[in-house]
Design a protein that fits this description.
CATH topology of the largest domain: Purple Acid Phosphatase, chain A, domain 2
Number of helices: 11
Largest sheet: 8 strands, mixed
Distance between the termini: 122 Å
Shape: elongated
Low-confidence stretches: 19-50
Number of strands: 35
Structural class: alpha+beta
Radius of gyration: 33 Å
Helix content: 10-25%
CATH superfamily of the largest domain: Metallo-dependent phosphatases
Length: 581
């Protein structure tokens, strides 16, 4: 057909015009099934027949504008397991708890376990290598979205310390993926853990990047500590679903140590999700009656993990004197009879609040003295939606060093309050670092002789940090992570600021690496001249203590001198010293 014949056909029978553009409705009318798929295929065929290459019209291309997926559909359970979490037992070297959710009844809920193989799939486990364990308990939870969820719990026992295992959970037909975890060592072994303050708000939007960045920075972490207020509404199925989704697979392979905040309670009652999700050790205090013990179960407990005693407390009951007293007595027992070198305590309401207008005098009065008396290393808290970190004023040894408990309050979610220092200053504490309007996570690395604590922003940048060192005698230093600003200036302590001719001054300094070499000078302040008078070596805690410094004959009578200590890491001076006779 030539061009003129084609134009004539298009005028007389336009529906048969070879060059005519077809729309989906035309094809639907002409197609044998009237379906969108047929329409798309026909459009694609016409375009290709005309010498053009095009993608067929998408299914649903002519649908209406998008609508929000109903909350009841977002996290509705199925037969497939989800919300899988590792929960530590009181014996994490030889046992492990796992909880998960599904819609399946408890008679079928089960887990399978084997020592981690080099491959699965086409590679079948050896005969007898896989152990099947039926769920030990099943807890239906009626949700706020109108459907029931069923939470299952299994405990693997008889495990080998420091051994990698692979497990999956399900109903015997519908299974999770295979997941790996490693049991704790029987004794001390270096490890890392992650600490979060309140998530609570913007869980699905702002929260995931914090959790994922923390995992990217410490993928080998053995424990995650949550200091309460994981969610905003205690019994919100949607928010609990968001929290589990935000952490993704991470909770299924790293042990979770969480404590309750005020938002895990509603009307004075613990969230119906808490105990089915977090069956922590039942080694907490006896509160004197069955009802209180049941209500407090899995909210106060301890876990010894590779040389660290983790203690979880419930600060939501601070207004209930008998319950608080029982908890405080139990806390002292846990601290007094602690075989571990390191101790970490976590609860929700801070000893020294960071947010404006907040104060927890009962927590501070009952627990604060015990932390100092028994040498607790880290106290990890939440509630204030700001950041603060410091130690008691009495424990300050220099501009950058304390020697007592480190108190930290942090926030991981997107809800923010204004930060103040008054609650610290008014109650005998130094607020060494403060921050507001920031989402944070904390990485904590434990070795035999030190704990390194670092807070980072959601984008992975450094915010704050300290190194805690402790010797076998229990002596300790808490040293700020070094900066160019905090490694210079007047930080050398002296026992006197007046001395006779060729007299001796005892000096002390902190903040060194263990074993670091320190050159000792006497400096003439007026002339700026230094005279090398000796050398010192920092001890295992990075200290130079009571070092006698004898002034040289060049330090004339009535002159003004100072002691100057120079090392690879610090260049610090003493106050001015007068040679008075």
């Amino acid at each position: 057909m030539n061009r003129s014949d084609c134009r004539a056909l298009c005028r007389q029978r336009p529906e048969e015009c070879p060059g005519r553009r077809l729309n989906v409705s035309d094809v639907r009318k002409r197609g044998p099934f009237g379906s969108r798929r047929a329409a798309g295929a026909a459009v694609g065929a016409v375009l290709l027949g005309g010498g053009l290459i095009a993608v067929p019209a998408a299914v649903g291309a002519d649908s209406g504008p998008p609508v929000k997926v109903p909350d009841a559909e977002v996290y509705e359970p199925s037969a497939l397991p989800d919300r899988i979490i590792l929960v530590p037992t009181a014996t994490p070297a030889t046992s492990q708890k796992v909880t998960w959710r599904s819609e399946v009844g408890g008679e079928y809920a089960q887990a399978q376990l084997l020592e981690a193989p080099i491959a699965l799939g086409d590679v079948r486990p050896a005969e007898g290598a896989v152990r099947t364990v039926m769920a030990g308990s099943t807890n239906p939870v009626t949700t706020s979205l109108g459907y029931a969820s069923v939470y299952h719990q299994v405990e693997f026992t008889g495990l080998q310390p420091n051994t990698r295992y692979t497990y999956r959970v399900g109903d015997g037909v519908n299974w999770s993926e295979w997941i790996d975890f490693t049991t704790a060592s029987a004794g001390f072994e270096p490890f890392s853990f992650i600490y979060y303050g309140d998530m609570q708000n913007y869980i699905d939007s702002a929260g995931p990047r914090v959790f994922r960045q923390a995992f990217a920075d410490r993928p080998e972490a053995k424990v995650i500590v949550n200091a309460g207020d994981l969610i905003n509404s205690a019994n919100s199925e949607l928010e609990w679903g968001q929290w589990h989704a935000a952490d993704g697979f991470i909770n299924s392979q790293i042990n979770n140590i969480s404590i309750t905040g005020n938002h895990e309670y509603s009307g004075g009652r613990l969230s119906t999700f808490w105990q089915p999700t977090f069956p922590y050790p039942t080694n907490g205090p006896d509160f004197g009656d069955a009802a209180t013990n049941a209500a407090m179960r899995n909210t106060v407990y301890s876990v010894d993990y590779q040389g660290v005693r983790f203690i979880g407390l419930n600060s939501n009951v601070q207004s209930l004197a008998p319950i608080m007293a029982a908890q405080t007595a139990w806390l002292e027992q846990q601290l007094a009879n602690n075989p571990n070198k390191w101790t970490v305590v976590t609860f929700h309401h801070p000893v020294y609040s960071v947010a404006s207008g907040r104060n927890n005098p009962t927590v501070r009065a009952q627990w604060g003295p015990l932390f100092e008396k028994y040498g607790v290393d880290l106290v990890l808290q939440g509630h204030d939606h700001t950041y603060g970190r410091g130690s008691t004023t009495a424990s300050r040894r220099s501009a950058t060093v304390h020697d007592s408990t480190v108190y930290a309050t942090s926030v991981s979610g997107g809800k923010m309050y204004d930060a103040v220092a008054s609650n610290w200053v008014d109650n005998g504490a130094d607020q060494m670092s403060v921050g507001q309007d920031m989402q944070l996570y904390q990485m904590i690395d434990v070795t035999e002789d030190s704990i390194t604590y670092e807070a980072r922003y959601a984008n992975g940048e450094h915010h704050d940090g300290v190194v805690i060192r402790k010797n076998d005698a229990g002596e300790r230093t808490v040293q700020e992570i070094r900066t160019p600003e905090n490694t210079v200036g007047e930080q050398v302590a002296v026992d006197t600021t007046t001395v006779g001719f060729r007299g001796t001054v005892n000096v002390s300094a902190w903040g060194y690496d263990p074993g670091e070499t320190v050159n000792v000078y006497v400096r003439n302040v007026e002339r700026g001249q230094d005279v090398l008078v000796g050398e010192a070596t920092a001890d295992e805690l990075g200290r130079v203590l009571e070092l006698p410094v004898t002034f040289p004959s060049s330090a004339k009578k009535l002159s003004t001198q100072m002691v100057y200590l120079e090392s690879v890491n610090q260049q610090i001076t003493s106050p001015e010293i007068t040679v008075n006779r």
